[in-house]
Each structure stands twice: as C-alpha cells, then as structure tokens.
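#struct-pred

JT: dropping the chains for the assembly here, can someone run the whole complex?
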Amino acid sequence: MVTFLRKRVVSSAIPLLFVVFGVFCLARLTGDPVNLYLPLSATPEQRAEFAAANGLDQPVLVQLWDYLGQIARLDFGESLRTGQSAAEMVFAAFPATLQLAAVTMLIAVAGAVLIGCAAAYRPNSPADRVCSFLSMTAASIPDFWFAIMGVLVFGVTLGWLPTSGVTGGAEVWVLPIATLLIRPFGVLVQVVRGAMVAALTAPYTRVARSKGASEKRVVFGHALRNAAMPALTVAGDLAIGLVNGAVVVETIFGWPGIGKLMIDSVLQRDFAVLQAAVLLTAVTIFTLNILIDACYALLDARVRQAAPA
Amino acid sequence: MTVPTPAAPPSGAEPALEVENLSVDLNTASGTVRAVDGISFAVRKGVTLALLGESGCGKSMTALAVAGLLDPVAEVAEGAVRVGGTDVLRLGRAERKRLAGPVLSIVFQDALTALNPVQTVGAQLGEPFRIHQGLSRRKAREKAVELMRTVGIPEPRARARSYPHQFSGGMRQRLLIAMAVALGPDVLIADEPTTALDVTVQAQIMQLLADLQAEHDMAVVLITHDLAVVAERADNVAVMYAGTVVETGPVHEVFAAPGHPYTRGLLDSVPENVDRGQRLRSVPGSPPELTAIPAGCVFQARCPMARDRCAEERPALTPAGPSRAAACHFSEELASA
Amino acid sequence: MTATPQDPGPTAQDPGPAPQDPGPAPQDPAAAPRPAPRPARWWTLLGGDRFAAAAAVVLGLVLTAALLGPVLLGDAAERQDLRASLRPPSLDHGVLGLLGTDVLGRSMLARLIDAAGTTLSVALPAVVCSLVIGSAIGMWAGYHGGLRESAAMRVADVILSFPSLLLAVVALYVFTPSVANLVLILAITRIPVYLRTARAEAAELRSRLFVDAARTFGAGSGATIYRHILPITLPTLLTVATVDFSFVMLTESSLSFLGIGIQPPDVSWGLMVAQGRQYLQTAWWIAVLPGVAIVITTVSATIIAAWARLATDPAQRWRLTAPRARRARANRGETPS
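RK: done, full complex below.
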C-alpha cells in the first residue's frame, strides 16, 4: 500500500510540474511578461523599473531559478489591484470554494448512488427511462444559465432565496450548490446506473443470489462495490471539473472563492493573483488525484497489487 | 405422470428434486421463443442425473429455472419444480431465498467471473453462514476456513484473506463448489463445472464432487456436454435436444443401446467408439434455431431415419422398459438395428 | 453535424472491439441463437427511435438556421430601434418580433440565429480539429506502442488532469480572446479525449491477424492504420465526438458568459445570457431564450450520441429494431418466481 501510494505520488507530480513550468513559459511566450503584470497604461519607465525589480532583464535560466525559489517560498508577488500579497488573497479565498465543492460532491455521490441503483435494478423500465432522460438533460444544462434561472424564479419572482452573497443562514447555500450540483449529478447518475446494470448481470451476482442473499445484500454488498470502481473514476474527474463550475457559480452569486478571484484577476489583468490561484488549484487537484488513487486501492485488491504505470 | 423418469421411485422414496413439464420462454428481438419445452426429470438423494446436450439445447436454462436465477429476459411459462415435495415455483421470493443454500444449491462454470473480484474468498465462502445462520463475521470466517480445508485448498487460514484472482482455475472451481455445499444442500446443480479446466484438474474436481455427494447424501444434477464425464460419473442421463428431453434412462443402458437416433449420433461421434482407420462420424447439420422449431420431431432435419411421419407428428417421450423412455417414433427399430 | 452516424452496416460485421460502453449491457439475448436479418439501414434505425429522430430534426434545424440565417435575415440582428426596446415575445410584430427584442430594440430571433452561427463556428472547428489530431496521434501511438505510446499518453494525462476552463482562462489571459484562439484552446483541451479512445482501440487491433497480414505484405504503418484501423475505430470516435460537441458548446458558452470568450459586437448564446442578466427583472426573455437554445441543442446532441452508440454496436443494435411492445416485455425487471 505504501509502495503503491509512493509510486502514485511520483507519477501524479508530473502534471503539477507541467503547470509550474507552463505558467512560467506562458508568461514569457507573449514576448514581454511585463505586459502581463503591469496595466496597459504603464509608462516605459515604469516598465523598465518593474522589469529590473523582478529580474526580468536577466537570462531565462536565472529567471526560472528565481521563479522556482519564489514558488517554494509561496511568494507570488503582489496584487496590482489591492497591493496585498497574492498568496494571502488566494489562501483567504480558498476555504469558501472548498466548502462549496465538498458539500456538492457529497450530495452528488450519495444521490447518484441511490438513484443510479434504483434505475439499474429495473433496466429500461419507465422509471429508468425517465431517470436517464432527466440525468442526460441535467448533464447538458449550462450551469450559468441554470443559476440565472434559479435567481429569476426563486430570487426575483418568488423572493424565497437571496440572489447573491454569503451572509445569512442556509438559504445562501441553496442556489450555488444546486447550480454546482446539476452537471456532476447528471453525469454520475448515468455512470452509476451503467456500472450497476453491468454488475447486476455479472455472474458473481447470480452466485450471490444462489446463496440466498437478500436483494439488499446483492445490490449493496456485491454489485455496488464492483460498480464503485468506474463511479469513483468519474467522480474524481467531476471533482476536478468542479473548478469549472466554481468559476461560474462564484461569479454569478458573488461567492468569495478562488474561482471568482481567478475571473476577476483575468478581467482586471492581475497576473500575480491569477498565477497564485492557478498554482494552488493545481496543487489541490494533485492532492485530490492521490486521494482518489488511495480509495481505488482500498476498494480493489487488484489495483493495490498491480504496479501502477 | 405417464412418463417414467429415470429415477422413478422404485421403493416409493420421494425424489429430492422433481421437475415436471417445465417450459421456459425467452423474449428476444425476433420474438418470444421457447428455450425449454415441457421437460420432466427427477433425482433421488445420493443419485447423479446428467443433463446431456449440445450448447444452446436449453440445459443451462433449465438449471437456472430450477434454481430461480433466470435473467429477466427469460421466464418460466409452465410446469412445476418440486424440491423435497414443495413446488418452489409457487413460493414467494423470500421463502425461495430461504431454500437457496441449505436445500438447493448450484455450482457455475467459469469460476473467475462467478467469484466476486473485490471480496476476499473468505468473506464469500462465509456468506452462506452469515445469511442463513446469522453467524458473526468472525465465526463465518472460521467456517469458511474449514470449508476450504474440506475442498483441499492448502494453507486455508492464510488464503482466506486472498482475492479470487490470486487462485488458479482449479482452485477457484474448488472454492465455488465449497460455497455451494457450505450448508449441506439436498440438491446440487453443477452447471458444466469442469468446462474451463485442464483435463487433469477436471478429474480432480469430479472426484471432489463425488466425495462431497457421498458425504452429504446429495442429489446431483450434472449439466454437461461431455459424454465421458456422463459415462464415468452419472447414474442416470437425460439427453436434451432443442429444448426437449429426447431420451432418459440409466447411463449404462442408454449408452449400451440408445433409443433415440440423436443419442446414437452423439455416441458414434466419440473417437473411442470408432475403429482405427475408420472415418469419425458426426451428427450432420446443426440444431434448429429456437425461432424455427419444426412442427414434427425436433430432430428430423438431422435424423438418418426420418420419414414422413416425423414431419407431421412430434413423438412423445414414451416408456421403453422399466426405467427408460425415448421420444422417437421408431425407437424399437433403432434398438433392434 | 460531424457526428452524423455512418451507415453502420459494414462495421456490424467487423469483429471490432465493442465501444467502451459503460451503458446498458444487461441480459444476454444471445442465449437463443438469432437468425441474422439484413442489417437495418441507419435511417430506419433512426426512425424507430422517436427520441433520436426528434433530436436529429432539432440539430438539422439549428444547422440550417446557422447556415441560411445570415442570408435570409440580412442585418436584422444588428438593426437597432430604440422605440422597440425590450418588447416581450408576441405575435404582433412580425416574424422578427416573435421572440421579443433586447434593450436596443434588436430582434431576439435574429440575434439567436446569428449567435447559432457563431456558436457553431467555434464548436464545429474545435471538435473537428481535436477529432482529427487526437485520433491521428492516438492511432499512431496505439499502433506503434512502446515509448511513443507512453509519451503520448503522458501528455494526454497532463492535459486531462486540469479543468478545461482553468486552462482556457489562463490562455485567454495571455492571448486575446478571438474566435480563432477559442477554437485553438478548446481543441487542445479536448484532444486527449480522442487520443485515449483511438489509442485503446488501435492497441487492441494491433495484435489482430488482419493487421499482421497487412504488415507481412509490406504495407507501411500509415497505410495499415488508414486501411485497417481507421475504419473500425471511426464509429466509436464519431460517437465520442458527438458527446464532445455538447461539451465544447457548453465550454464556449461559459467562457463567453464570463466575458473571456466571444466579444461584442459578435454575439453568441452564452454572451446573450450574460447581457440579459441585468434585465432579469424587467425582460426575462433576453436571458432565458438563449439558454433554452443551448439546452435544446446540447440535449439533442447527447441523445444522438447515445443512439449512435447503440446503432454502431452490433451486440446492442437489436434494441432499436425490436418492436416496442416486445421490447417492453423483454425489459421487464424480474422473472415471476
């Protein structure tokens, strides 16, 4: 198990390194990185000063070394808008996004397992067909539009829920979570259903029935554990994809998370903050991948024993 | 019942398993077809009945119908399956589940897919005890280890923690058998238990089954297409063709003097029965599609002795002697030939 | 639509690997040998599935509107008329007023059709580019194996392990948002999807006899891939492309909505939703209608993809040809026991 995880950590670190270098290269790809950091209205003197101060007049290798050193010290520079340290801003915004994503994923997984199992138990029954159509639609609805419809119906017309902000009780969570939930939920229901249909027709399910196992035991004890493998893979991808949704949801509902920070820094051309946010997201995703691998190995002995590529 | 079954109770002993006029319908894209058509047989305790036939003749479907494990596309159309005198087809789902394991059990082929890949074999072998006897996890594991020892798995205590993929094919089949006999059932159905195995391992597995049968005094229904296995291991045989039973009787009698041209054809195709230098004979043609079963005799298209009557009238399974029956208009002719 | 399913006729005979389909693979109807009817034409199959037929019609309409709209409507999408500002959808103002007007009095219908063109002009090239490049690299990597395979897969993993929107956000910060850049970025983020699929299939086919045979005859790797691997892999890849079309469309809409995709004065559905946001309380239709357009188009593409997956899989195709009533019966949950 320990060897397994060590190998996974090493192979998962490669994408992380790619991002670190990617951001560095991208910043220099446009010709002059000063353009990225300073507003377009900056004078040539300001540019030269900034370049010298940040070592941008040095050879590329020296710059790379400085850059890596800065990352190691979590020093991403200062925000042009607020003058605050970029790292501080990012870390302040991070928990809000994490809470939102965690609650969403929990609901999505629990709900998808229940609904997916129910649909797979009687494949192609009317209930299953309705469920398939609804989950397909849910996975195809643009989240930003869904959010706006939510605001229109529950915020503007009915006045039940706040249209944005984080101050208040449970009601401020409803629309953001519903918006973030809809796509992962739709996708996951389809995956769980498909995997469960396969598992419920597998020979080992028949054997379990031949032992007189109750349907509950057959579905949750035997089939679900096998179906958990593909579901887990997709759930992992969806959790990573939640970043996409978070950007949209946080922008619409004014949720002070990392996604809103990212879009704001793009629109206001604040590269230091954007860079910090991207790197932190990359680290989060890296950690998430390791966690998923660990779950995988816990669920299936074959994964544990096979040397991962 | 007019048809004498192979295990027609000579001493009035009740058969452990009695299948009467069982039909199974299959819903396919091209319509509903009858995969099993009115078959009957019975087995007493301690006796082995072989269901013999080519693949697709309905023998596995029969086994699944008896065990109540048919896929949703198939359903029992009519008939009765009596286990220890009760018709299990009339039982509710929960009652039927209570019988599965302690009374009626089944061994499947292809042990790799029949074992759950994500559970330890110890947990899977202990499951019958947990379900039917409500044992604790620890106690069930003890029982599982015991079972593994009985079926000849070395170092059972350590290996109970292993997963199915860590066992060889023969060992997996042993595990599957152990699971089936865990609660000492009265009736054991073995569906091609040795098909996926090497010849040497096949013999070991068949011996294991025979030992366990003697130990638990089980009625065994052995489903196979292997004539040699039938000859060696079965007491009675029911030969199936296109969803029907075409001949029944004690193995040695049937094999010595077949009463149905299909049985004769099968026997003739075994290399040992042919003199050296002679051409190996085979039954020409292939079984009819289930969607296109002819009106008369099901075997007419491949039968060397087919006449006009065979195309018009389906022969019933008629008694020939005290314990035998064949479904052929001309079985006497065949016997005297 | 790129993903117009090819006539699956010839591929049905190919022993090609079943598409990696996590979808329904329940009961095995092959237990009963089926007669092999002539493979149905794809339009017959399409007609047999009402959902899929409706979806195909919708996609056809969107495509036609996007192509013919500019010709028929002229500059209606840009024509401002402040007296007609924020008119709700009604029948009183001619065809152009059918769906209401925006704050500048521009016809919503004309703008929606104009936006359809923009959306498709981003989504279609992006899908085609990623399909062509991804499949080519994937088949090449899968066919050759070894180092080339692992290098390609590693790069694909890296791209896939990051949210597409994140990559797009960073890239669109550095480069200015334009249609060409959008297409480029969306294509790059989706290449791994095809790469993985094509590689898996090519690696599977690499060891097949007919590929070996081609190699023995001295066919170059390019020719072998083109002649033998591409035809078998294509249906799967096209199905993936159909699913991906929805995804790319949604991503483009999201980016445009966030203000880093299509820029005014161009118009796309996502951008229209963003512009309608501030009039949510007074003129709901400005934000609602473009969203409806997105949903209808993506749902249609998804339905077509699901249908194509069935139609290109010989083992599943019977589901589309079975008469409705029988299909319902065949799919009934449990057997009465």
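JT: nice. Confidence is low (pLDDT under 50) at residues 1-37, 320-337 of chain C. The domain at 58-321 of chain C is CATH 1.10.3720.10 (MetI-like fold).
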